[in-house]
Amino acid sequence: MTPPLKVAVLGANGRMGAEAVKAVTAAEDMDLVAALGRGDSLQRLLEAGATHVVDLTVPASTEANVTFAVEHGLHAVVGTTGWDEARRGALAGLLAGHPETGVLIAPNYALGSVLASAFAAKAARYFESVEIIELHHPDKVDAPSGTAVRTAQLASAARTPAGVPAGPDATEHSLDGARGADVGGVRVHSVRLRGLVAPQEVLLGGPGEQLTIRHDSYDRASFMPGVLLGLRSVASHPGLTYGLDGYLDLND
């Protein structure tokens, strides 16, 4: 019988971290060996015998947390924002010196959201226009969301080799921000509204028709199946994987 994974959760006192603590505790193939909050020493990960780390902290601390994990051979599943291309590049370089260690960084761990982004990317090459509306609670610190940026990047990457130009837009005059952020030629619009968790809509338009791909998260529990999938898979994917879609069978 395979021994349970020894998992530590960083950011355990936050809303997402608390959900992760519950999910790992309930998983029969995992043992929660440590739950760290702000100010707790990372040395506790080693003292507890953790082999896997879930980082759900804040952008200011996530890089140091993941660096510590990699340097000590701990696999990491990361849901904290702030991992731009430069940070991911530095992490990939660090991982080159630890070839048996895996790190998964994903903008979103809701399986439905990951699938919706993948479906949108597949559809984007067939429609003249693509725009994204992402909606979140007003306590979210970044805009657009990492999920929306990732979706736009996937859609843009699918359109380029297919020779699909940027969507038509005759706008000549607008207030700053009225047309949203431009991510690889795909417009992304952010809404911040009390009562929301994390809906996202991808709007695709062509002559005489529109396709809308929408995903709704009503509770942070929706992200936990993806976090658990990441924990179960990360050791078999050494190096850096960006996006949970890297662990799913989404080949054409």
Calculate Rg over CA atoms: 19 Å
Helix/strand class? alpha/beta
Largest sheet report? 6 strands, parallel
| Count of separate structural domains | 2
In CATH, the architecture of the largest domain is 3-Layer(aba) Sandwich
Could you spell the SSE succession in H and E letters? Answer: EHEHEHEHEHEHEEEEHE
Main CATH class of the largest domain: Alpha Beta
End-to-end CA span: 35 Å
Q: For the largest beta sheet, what order do the strands appear in spatially? A: 2-1-3-4-5-11
**The named CATH superfamily of the largest domain:** NAD(P)-binding Rossmann-like Domain
- Percent of residues in helical segments? 25-40%
Low-confidence stretches: none
Count of helical stretches: 7
Q: Report the β-strand fraction as a percent range.
A: 15-25%
Q: In CATH terms, what is the fold-level topology of the largest domain?
A: Rossmann fold
- Mean pLDDT over all positions: 95
Query: Globular, elongated, flat, extended or rod-shaped: what is the shape?
Result: elongated
Number of strands: 11
Region (Disordered): 157-179
Protein name: 4-hydroxy-tetrahydrodipicolinate reductase
Keywords: Amino-acid biosynthesis, Cytoplasm, Diaminopimelate biosynthesis, Lysine biosynthesis, NAD, NADP, Oxidoreductase
Subcellular location: Cytoplasm
